[in-house]
Structures are given as C-alpha cells and as structure tokens.
C-alpha cells in the first residue's frame, strides 16, 4: 500500500524539493506551509510519516509536535537550521523520532524515511507470526502493562498510553528480556538497526517512556554505567 507523507515547511522551495524526491520513490505527499495547516491536514487525511520544520512563524514545529503527540503516534522527523545538541534533545523529548539539520541532503532524508518503513515492516512481519496476544479488554492480566504488537498500542492499568513508534519498540525490547540488563548499544542496534540516528537518543526515549508510564510503577531501572533493566518486581 502506498505510504503518505506530510511535509510541513514555510519555505515553498524546500517543500517542492522534498515532494519531488519522495514522489520519485512512489510516496504519496501532502504539503502544508504552517503549523495550523498541518494540524488541519491530519484531521482530514491518513498520514504515515511527517517531515516537520521547526522554525516556522505563527506556530513553530515544536508546538506542532506537541499537538500531534496528544492525538497521534505518527513518526515525525524534524528539520531545523539549528544544529545544537540541546535543540535535538528537546525535539526528541517532545516526541520526534528523528532529526536532521539544514542544509540537508534530500537523498539522505529519503533514505531515512525508507529505512523507517523497512524497519516497521520487518517488525510487523516478525510479530504477525507469533501467537495472537490477549486483547487489552481481556483483563485481569498478570501484568499491569500490556503491549499489543499487532496494533502498536500500549495499555497501563487498562488505560491507553500514547507511545511513539520508537518508544514502543524500545519498551517491547526491554519487556522481552525481563530482569536482564541491556546496554544502550544493544537497545540502539535492535531498535534502530540500519537506520540513521544517534545512540544518545536511546537515553532521551527512555526518559520519555518513563514519563508516560508515570510514577506508580518503576518498570525501567537504570543500571549506572551499563544500561537499563525491565522489571515488575
């Protein structure tokens, strides 16, 4: 099925450049030139991936991302003229899945998007061969935290939690190795595989997952100097 990508940037030349490249790869592309326009597009159209500029007038990309994360789990790649590490961290903390700085290579941008879809398809094909998991409605469960790998949905105490794709994949990987300490390198290699990215984003995503899970449970423990461990004890 053809994937639809929303490209959001107030620079029409950049939108045209990205759109042309993505359409050559057989992607369907919808464009928006402001934050409010992008949010309006999402209400009316199914979208599989978002390329989002940060520095836009009226509503910047960070605010757009916050709005999107309140309602959608669509993967988001930020574009920004700012290349400071702190800007990247802020973008990832509020829910972005990837980050590129301007000027950028449109070929690299396209490759990152294609890598995301390959990773998603590979995981789906691996998981669909597993036995059907209990639906979230089939409670009580021995665990208060349930991941439905067929729908990429997470439930804690029967309440749905909105996780980004990467957050879901990290949590799933940790849960599949309970009580085992996993290094950041192991998590990065499993979740990002051949995709572009930075290993420091693992720490940022773990922080986001903990925040979304709340303080009632301490599922993810930090093993200082080594990595992380999932436990329900």
Automatic annotation (TrEMBL):
Keyword annotations from UniProtKB, A to Z: DNA-binding, Phosphoprotein, Transcription, Transcription regulation, Two-component regulatory system
Residue ranges occupied by any Response regulatory domain in the UniProt entry: 4-117
Keyword DNA-binding on entry: yes
GO molecular function terms listed in the Swiss-Prot or TrEMBL record: phosphorelay response regulator activity; transcription cis-regulatory region binding
SMART domains hit by this protein: REC, Trans_reg_C
Gene Ontology terms: biological process: regulation of DNA-templated transcription
Top-level taxon of origin: Bacteria
InterPro entries, sorted: CheY-like_superfamily (IPR011006), OmpR/PhoB-type_DNA-bd (IPR001867), Sig_transdc_resp-reg_C-effctor (IPR016032), Sig_transdc_resp-reg_receiver (IPR001789), WalR-like (IPR039420), WH-like_DNA-bd_sf (IPR036388)
One Pfam family in the UniProt entry: Trans_reg_C
Modified residues (4-aspartylphosphate): 53
Function: May play the central regulatory role in sporulation. It may be an element of the effector pathway responsible for the activation of sporulation genes in response to nutritional stress. Spo0A may act in concert with spo0H (a sigma factor) to control the expression of some genes that are critical to the sporulation process.
The protein, known as: Stage 0 sporulation protein A homolog
């Amino acid at each position: 099925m053809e994937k639809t990508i929303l490209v959001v940037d107030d620079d029409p030349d950049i939108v045209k450049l990205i759109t042309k490249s993505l359409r050559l790869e057989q992607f369907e592309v919808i464009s928006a030139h402001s934050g409010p326009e992008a949010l309006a597009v999402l209400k009316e159209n199914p979208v599989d991936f978002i390329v989002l500029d940060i520095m836009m007038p009226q509503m910047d990309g960070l605010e757009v991302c916050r709005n999107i994360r309140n309602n959608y789990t669509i993967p988001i790649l930020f574009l920004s003229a700012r290349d400071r590490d702190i800007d990247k961290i802020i973008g990832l903390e509020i829910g972005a899945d990837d980050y590129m700085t301007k000027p950028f290579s449109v070929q690299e941008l396209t490759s990152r998007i294609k890598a995301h879809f390959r990773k998603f398809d590979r995981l789906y094909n691996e998981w669909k061969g597993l036995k059907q998991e209990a639906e979230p409605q089939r409670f009580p469960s021995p665990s208060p935290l349930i991941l439905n790998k067929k729908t990429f949905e997470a439930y804690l105490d029967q309440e749905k939690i909105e996780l980004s794709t990467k957050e879901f994949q990290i949590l799933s990987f940790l849960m599949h190795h309970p009580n085992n300490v996993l290094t950041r390198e192991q998590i990065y290699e499993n979740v990002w595989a051949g995709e572009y990215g930075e290993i420091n984003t693992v720490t940022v995503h773990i922080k986001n997952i903990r925040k979304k899970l709340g303080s009632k449970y301490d599922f993810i423990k930090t093993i200082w100097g080594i990595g992380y461990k999932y436990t329900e004890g």
